[in-house]
Fold each of these.
Amino acid sequence: MKKLIGIFLTGILALGLTACGNSSSAMQNSAESQTEKGKIAPVEIPEQETGQPENGYAQAEADSEGNKTLIAYFSRSGNTKRLAEIIQEQVGGDLFEIKTSAPYPEDYDSILDQARQEQRDNARPELTLPVENMEDYQTIFIGYPIWWGNTPMAVLTFLESYDFTDKTVVPFCTYGSSGAGSSFQSVSDAVPGAVMFDGFSISGSQAEESQNDVQSWLDNLETPDSFNLETKTVRLNSGYDMPIVGLGTYSLSDEECYQSVLVLLENGGRLIDTAYMYHNEAAVGRAVRDSGIPREEIFVTTKIYPTQFDDPRQAIEEALVKLDIEYIDLMLLHHPGTGDVEAYKVMEQYVADGKIKSIGLSNWYIEELEEFLPQISITPAVVQNEIHPYYQETDVIPYIQKLGIVVESWYPLGGRGHTKELLTNEVISSIADAHGVSSAQVILRWDIQNGVIVMPGSSNPEHIKENLDIFGFELTDDEMEQIKVLNRDEKHDWY
């Protein structure tokens, strides 16, 4: 698992020890920074008796690889400020306070009224000072209090004022009684192209003494695309957790599909993949409803086919009606086609409305992604491609994962007509014998250890159960390498 501490904390913790008590501020100036929805207004920087700008030119700290860390925060009562200070004490870096040009009211109820109005208006309050040389910061902690159940709009002004592409963004917040709400998702949406890490939230009344809680969070902080083998999930860049093993329903008839989904759910599986072109969305939805398992514990993926791109809104509504499960956890464009960008933008609107939780792509490769991604607002949470030991996508998978997008495999066992050849491969069979498992389990475990979600298709109850049981053993580095050399770049479908 990729831990945040392994990326940047190791180097800057040492710096933080030497910097305790020496709070450094992010470099600031009065230059105007203009964005489409909000702006940072120029103001005069107050001078000290020496005539130098107050906290104007603090030396930024960097880790051993030269990566600089910024802890930016917006605070009303001081709770979020204190939390930011505790984070700085533990990781080092520079503090920067986000301030609005027009101060908010002192009265708490008045603030909430204003916050609610700003959310209704989708306002972007004007800010005072910008961060100088923001491009030099690689890791940005962003803190705020929860206002009216979400991120203060001033924080969105700040986030939209800079390019966070390829930067690491880590949200943290204080709250009264509502928890973090959807604020982490709001932050993620405001920084397309950034790598998002798990956020931290705590009651404002506990912020002052939160050192241990913050340290525990930092110690266990993971990138969204890190697999958690205990919960058997991965945190998507959308902020939602997705199971890493599931069931593909391609070619399953209604009754086969219904029974297979029930078997999956009865045996602990929670990920189901369907599509418009599979003609079994209604069967999937019926099984989910009949399972007796809380809806929020189940993750359902469906897809829009290119023939639907001319009217994506109708396609989405049709999927919602057929599934009849309140919302769609993940919706993908099935593969590239005319009108795919416009169709994706409609999916983005449904994310904003809460009817779709996460969106992504299927059968997109490097060239297609390079053309597609600059035209959209929400970074895909998942890219689903054909991946198996004979077609390993050794260039594509790292490219996608570097973007903070989770990779998912369809045809993980080679696909119909090719499965037998793969399962009887001598190398894979030998590894299976060594672990006392099946060849299918070895292949699925190989995918998981490569950071790839798997959704093998089957209507056989025993196979469905077996495919879920891949967490009781681990492949060695040598075994992973043995499977790696089996690659033939042999694609088994036309996508």
Amino acid sequence: MTHPIQPAPFEGRIGRTLAESEPHFTSSPHPGSDAPNVVIVLLDDTGFAQFGCYGSDIDTPHVDALAAGGLQFTNFHVTPLCSPTRASLLTGRSQHAVGMRSVSNHRTGFPHQLGHITNHAATLAEVLGEQGYATFCCGKWHLAPTEDISAAGPFEQWPLGRGFDRFYGFLEGETDQFHPELVVDNHHIDPPGGPDGGYHLSEDLVDQLLRMISDSKGVRPDRPFFAYLPFGATHAPHQAPQAYLDKYRGRFDEGWDVVRQRWYERQLAQGVIQEGTQLAPRNPGVKPWAELPDSHRRFACRLQEAFAAFLDHTDDQIGRLVDGLRQMGQLDNTILIVLADNGASQEGGPFGIMHEMKYFNGIVDDPDDVMDRLDDIGGPNSHTNYPWGWAQCGNSPFKWYKQYTHEGGVHVPLLMHWPAGIAGDQRGTRRDQFVNVSDVAPTVYDLLGIAAPDVFRGYAQLPVTGNSFAPVLADAGTPATNALQYFEQSGSRALVVEQDGVCWKAVTRHIKGESFDDDRWELYELSTDRSECNDLAEAQPDKLDELIGLWWAEAERHGVLPLDDRMIELFVARRDDHSPHPTNRRYRYRPPMSPIPSAASASPSGRSWELTAQVSRGADDAGVLWATGNANSGMSVFVQNGRLVVDYNSFGEHTVVESELEVPAGDCVLTARVQRTSRTEGVIELAIDGEPCGSAELPYMMHIISSIGSSVGLDHGQAVSPRYEAPFAFSGALHAVEIDRSGASRSEAETAARTEMARQ
């Protein structure tokens, strides 16, 4: 007996002939011809004071114009770290509840740190896509487990797996702005240009996003779009075109004390902060500018100039985006939101850094030693971050930085521009109501008339716990809709609550490794003390105890527990315990291959290892067999002029060893071995077909080589070695490259993990 195949449900009628049948056409969801577009522009590590309209004298005319033509929020809060903020922004829920208490680089085995957003929390892109919106993402993702971001996937947590139709950008926590590690949709690509041709990632991201929008609107003008533009700026490395760097020469020679005071006074004059708000004292470790040696001042000024140039350049790209939307006739009915993911970064340390990999190898730059490289700062041959003094200046008037739950880490800019939806008499006004990043998605849903689903693609959905602030758009006097908000990052905690018209904050700065029960809590009345200068903990212990109790209740509600202050240890655990890329694995690569991100590649950092390449070559064949890193630091194994060559690039100091024997024509096996001989020294040994043929002492063996990944058969991106121009692809037949690092110790892996935290 045969059984008919059951078709999908059909609402027409099927007879024996067409005449006896009735067709039925399903229609795709459509939000309506007047539905607004939504654009969210996210900046990275940009402090509260760093836009011109928030107090700085850095040139940001395009962001300032959006504030003048829209609404400027002066009491907006985020999480203190990038991945958690992004998860909360895109879901309308707390970061812990959706599985992203920290960066996506690791998982802990607990629900609050999955390394990705749980499928029980649909993203804005997923929800709006189901409503008929086109959805685009261009920029930094950092919401997928980094062990899963190679060309091997899996791809479920990449942007296309979480609701975006198109993606162009990078998946990790940072990238080089001149030589980015790019992904299009679900595959890795080489950048379309380099710095010599005027390439810069921020410009490329806006170009790509405008093209996506134009493609969509050109063919489907009736279909609205959601565009998410998370710039790599202003996260380190601070890199900008030379014209922008030149523009800021000498602009900060007065030093951070004078500049911070000036920005604070501008904030008061602009009304960005309330009258009576104090300028917080210098953070511990920030020296008075007058006490710094001349070389320290010169170094610090150049680093701040690079940051300012980077922000100025990013502002110009925002201007290009706005102009593009205007030219397409889309600007008036576009809800355009601009915000930052956390406060300014402290990851440059007390003096600033010329090269982050040097810093995370435990080497502190002596400003006297970098005087001859000042002109490199901000360009393609640097990887800089500014010192604490400039970071606190960027967070004016607050204390502390990114990664802290004090205001300097969580209080950032937010702008909203929507000509069709914001009344003319409200444009250019400010909103001082407390708003949190989890409130953004519910506000978008509210403005679009959309309800977040209870079930999405078979997954029961967590409740949307953010609060729509749509009511405050029309009336500056409307009470805040969010009256209770917790914060937590690596054990540092805070709670903000409004009670009887008074806004209170309890906050503690946890010291890693110490008992959470011993943390000292502080108490502030934010209504009159936004900069947390007057601690009321001793004067009002009952109020403090009440708020601490509320924090624990919110922690239970949002899945914050268990408290966990691990960071470096988590990177080690990821690689050793449950990652497909453990530290002791033997890797075998067969070209052609896409570039391999650092979290998924065979990193030889700080350990003994051996590379073996099986090749077949003609007499003139040459090229790179394997490379990792870039011109700032890295290592390359290549054949050139008939010799096997290794260039070990230790922060610009090159140890080059060349084989004493020629590489024979035909089939052969080439070996490069790095032996660690002490904590900081090693030796490179070469062999051809098993015969030793060269060695060199390594005066400094890097514990961390680079945040840039590896390539097989060529050197993608910026060349590691000055002896060739990238990509210098091997012109013979490269059958396989095998890397054996099975002797790696756990202590070496712990050292290797230290770089990851500052890259977020």
Amino acid sequence: MTNFHPRGQRGIALIVVLILLVVMSLLAIVSLRSTLLEERMSANMMDRSLSFQAAEAALREGEAIAAGKSVGDAACTNGICNQPAAASAPRWQGTGWTNARTTSVNLGNKTAAAQYFIEYLANNVPARGTCTTTEDVSPDATCTQLEWRYRITARSTAAGRATVMLQTTYAVP
């Protein structure tokens, strides 16, 4: 009588399937991370867009107030400031936001808060195209119209959200 001994396993199917499972799992993880990153980027872009719209609306509100030719004071009462001193730091970099005006902007189904202040710059600036010389700022120019100039700075910020700061120079004839 002969003893029958079965031969050992020779297939590698189990190993191949396990390797394929690991590769597919890695592909799924990479795809998931990419999708999450894109979602965060689009949410950040939406936050920035809303903040930009709020800051822009605050600029427009500031322009409407500056059209009244206000001069302001050193304390920036009601968000209207006098001429900035040449040696001082810009108001938007320091604590200048403590006296800034605050406005609430309705952006469809969301509301965003924005702050702005108006800095009076000068009231004797020649308007473009109203002087007899090619250089409007020339001391010998004969100008027919002088403008009031303001610098309006607005920012929209919220905790954990994008912060946007905009600035414009506004001329009032």
Amino acid sequence: MMVATQTNDLKVETQNNEAPSSININYHNVKKASLVLRALNHKLRQQILTLIETEKKITVTEIYVRLRLEQSVASQHLAIMRKAGVVTTQREGKYIYYLVNYKRIDELNQCVQEMVA
């Protein structure tokens, strides 16, 4: 029997002696996790991340010039990466620099390793 609750959770209960007797899945968290993983599973975003790592910190202007992108394209991809937490920003005067969030990358690597192990 399947019962969906209002919090985007799915509860599955078995009627016979199968283990486990119930499975709880929080679909909201699954969706958030998939957005984070998709942020890294994109060739252009991987190139952007590599460029940021190489330069240590870099502006959106430097990114779109170096990768020959439209400014709006670079900004959209950076927004996705920032929302996923894989990059952070640092303001210095009138400039905003992008930096790799190594702690978040390490957390994602550990999570993925556990999932595929």
